[in-house]
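Hi D.,

Good news: the full-assembly prediction came through. Inputs first.
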Amino acid sequence: MMAVCRHELKSCFHTLTAWVFGAFLLVFVGIWAMQYNIQAAMSSFEYVLGNSTVLFAVLIPLLTMRSIAEERKQKTDQLLYSLPISTTEVVLGKYLALLAVFLVPLAVIALYPLIFAQYGEVYLPTSYGSLFAFFLLGASLIAVGVFLSSLTENQGMAAGIGVAVILLNYYSVSLSEYVSQSVTGTVVVLVVVAILLGLLVRHLTRNGGLAYGVSFVLIAIITVILWRDNTLFEGLLPRVMGQLSLFERFFTFVNGIFDLTAVVYYLTVTAFFLFLTVQSLEKRRYN
Amino acid sequence: MIQAEHLTKYYGDIPAVVDLSFTIGEGHVYGFLGPNGAGKSTTMNLMTGCLSATEGRVLIDGKDIFENPKEAKRRIGYLPEQPPLYLGETPEEYLKFVGEAKGLRGTALKDDIERVIQETGIAEMRHRRISALSKGYKQRVGIAQALLGNPRVIILDEPTVGLDPIQIIGIRDLIRDLGRSHTVIFSSHILSEVQTICDEILIIAHGKLVAFDTPEGLEKKLLSPGQITLVTDAAPEAVQAALAEVPHINDMDIQPQDEDNLITIVLNTDQEDIHAVSRQVFQAFAGAGIDLLEMSLKKASLEDIFLELTEDTSPEENQAEESAADTGTADVQLPEIPETTTTTETQTDSEEEVDPQ
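Then the structure:
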């Protein structure tokens, strides 16, 4: 695992990805820090981080797009399959390397609140709590990016989908206001989701029976709930969209709350997408 | 060393490899021979754990490649059809990564990298970028990677494809050298290559193993029924009388005298040792005082065996295989053996003669 990690880290710095990623993050955080903390003389560094989260929409896909797609394109994935290392080790090794690349600019950013504290009153716990959440948010988005990279051999495609997915997630809370609150609308969306899940299962397992089974069971559950207590569906979609937003949970930290459930949530999302990445790589051997 | 048991691999509904079983022993060079799309690469990918079999299993030294992948893969060095190289790195950096992934550390890693660099002759190129290397050197870097960690089995998928003749000779010599200390399995669709390097040959066609023998063994298989052609200026009756004494002659075809008063006799025999028959024919002629002007033995060449074995499948299977293959048709590269060419020409000639009648 460490061999893959070292190798990936080296190639990130070799191909300039790491430099571009770090430079962009530092430049924009620097600009906002200058505006908020220096020019406007506000003492809260967490707002700068809050502003910077939108950068992830561009920077994370930039960082993750080549991680697995490139291996596939250059056929070096065959080497990884034939080496005495497991797919999980490959994925974890790559992920840890990207995390390390992300940590480099964060280490620099971590100095800012200390510097500002020299010149005025800065409430450090919120600053560092937010920085920690900023790291967790980035870490889970990197996991999403790695997964998207494992789906294609085209880096551009991986990056494009990555930007779209992260932006959608970023705006999901504001978008949720436009989503149907009614029971009918919710049921329609849930049925569509159930069918899509069935299709996904069929794609992954090539097992038609299982796929139809999954869809059927989900639709049956929806029907039963609808029949017993349909008030459950009222306003369900906006609630779910709000819950799925990775960014929304970050802002509780900015508001000065160290939210342990959010930490668990980020870790779960990370683990889930890394698991999916391993499955996606394993599946390629079964095609 | 390697046991493949009932290997079957389907891509969707298309069979690539069907019920393939074989056992490969320790040492020696083994050749996988087959036309393009025969299932050679699929079989190699199954053997190295790069693909999972639809059915069947592969044991490396008794370790299942899927149930005990780490142990099994440690015993294998694999060079896929397209060398899996990181083009932006130098051979040394690349080998360092592969060595670390194979669990080598510190001086053991350094020594091993040094060893494979020397073995594959890439010392001069060690600090150049892989993307700047010629195809032959890239192939060597790929082989060097397979040799790291000193695995007992080395599997090379079409290592000589796309190389120039000098590079091909270089790689072949390398394979021969490796065969002294490792079990080497390599695939090729070039017959002469397999014939010259391999101790044993597995012929694969349409996803099935059609033959597994030594080159000589394979030749012997088609030697019977053998054919002896004689040319003499004696009278046909005298020849017939003399040959009547010789055992193991199944049938005899005496062609009439030509303008030079020569007759050609074609003998067919089922005797395995064709030289025993030819010796007796010679003795019989000498005893009867008949001048033997020419005698030639038609031995089946490996190429004949290859063509006969690989073309011997039903049309439906052919169709399925062709749609599965990248190139669609079987592209068989044959060695230049003058004898064979003459045989083919003669056959065509006789066919043309027959046609008008």
